[in-house]
Amino acid sequence: VLDERLFTSPAVALQQARAAVEKMGSRASTNFCKAFGQLEHYNDEVTLNIQTREDLLDKMEVSISDYLVKIGDRELTENENRQITELLKLIGEYERIGDYSINILECAQRVQDRELHFSSAAKQELELLYRAVKEILQLTAGAFSGADLAKAQQVEPLEETVDQICFAMRERHILRLKSGRCELEAGIVFLDIITNAERVSDHCSNIAGRLVGNELDVDAHARKQALHAGTNPEYNRLLEEYRQKYLELLPQMA
Description:
Elements: H1 10-40, H2 44-72, H3 78-114, H4 120-145, H5 149-179, H6 184-216, H7 220-228, H8 233-245
C-alpha cells in the first residue's frame, strides 16, 4: 500500500514508489518463469497463481502511476521530476513483461488442451532460451534494485545474444518442419513462445538502457547503436562470453 502521507517528503515518497516498482518487476519475472515451467509440467493451480499475479500487476500499474502523478503535483527538484518520469516508463516496461508472460502461459494451455508435443531438439532449445531470458531478468532486477551500473551494462550483450538464439531457433524449426520432425500446430506454438520470450528480453534491454543512460547522461538509443557497431571492447567481450554460454550450445541439440 502506497502511503500518501509521505507526500510531505517527496524524496521518501519516491523511495516508496521505487520499492513498489521493484516489487512489480519481481512479480513480472516470477510470472515469466512460472509460465515457462507450465510448458513442460502443466498444473492448473500454478495457472491460477500466475493469473492472480497478473491481476496484481495490472492493479499495481494503475496505483503506482497515480501515486507518482500525485507526487508530481508537489514542488519538486529537477532530479525528482526526472525520477518520476523514469519510474513511469519502467512501470510500462514491467507491465509488458507481465503481458508477454501471460501469452506464454496461453501457449502452455494450448499445448495441454490440444495434447501437442515438441520434438526433443525443440524442448532443449526452449530450455536454453529460458535460461538466457531468466538471466537477463535477474541482471535487470539487480541493476535496478541496487542501482548497479555494472549489471546494467551486462544486459545489452545478453539481449543481443537472445536475439541471435531466437533467430537460430526459427531457422532450425523450419528445417524440422521440412523434414517432418515437427508437428505443424506445435510448431506454431513454438514460434509464439520464441516471439514472446524475445520481447521480454527487449523490455529488459529498455530498462537497463534507461538506467545506464541516466547514470552516464547519454541517450539510450544512441548508446545501443554504438554498442552494436562493435567498437566497444568490453561489450564485445561480454557478447562473446554469452555466445559461448548459450548460442554455441545450439548445434549440439539434435
